[in-house]
Design goal:
Distance between the termini: 42 Å
Number of helices: 3
Largest sheet: none
Shape: elongated
Order of helices and strands: HHH
Length: about 120
């Protein structure tokens, strides 16, 4: 498999992961239950005695999860489009840096929410 094909495949995977993440954020907002990707490895929300805690956790991570998912969609689409149509050399490094910055911001937000809600 050529490097261009590998990068296209990677971009497509990131794009669809972004869609999945946005949909998970919307579902989390509607159901007031966090998706499994935000829970500890056992997949259970810690027993805190109140559903309001779970709802507050979901409310705290709804926007960061949606922003993270949208950044994945944008990065995947932009990288694929740049590879085949634009071919601007600065797009790839700038896109990677911005996507990694959003990833770091999102991990910080998830860590803060887990700490705040005892996970």
């Amino acid at each position: 498999m050529s490097p261009d094909t590998m990068m296209l495949l990677f971009s497509i995977i990131i794009f669809f992961f972004g869609i999945y993440t946005v949909l998970a954020a919307v579902q989390m907002k509607r159901s007031k239950k966090p998706p499994s990707m935000l829970l500890p490895q056992d997949g259970k929300f810690p027993p805190m005695g109140h559903d309001a805690d779970q709802e507050a956790f979901c409310n705290a991570l709804y926007v960061p999860t949606a922003v993270f998912g949208l950044s994945g969609c944008l990065y995947g689409a932009l990288e694929a489009a740049n590879q085949y149509w634009f071919q601007i050399s600065a797009v790839k490094p700038v896109g990677i840096v911005l996507f990694l910055a959003v990833c770091a911001w999102y991990m910080k937000k998830v860590g803060q929410a887990r700490e705040d809600y005892g996970m």
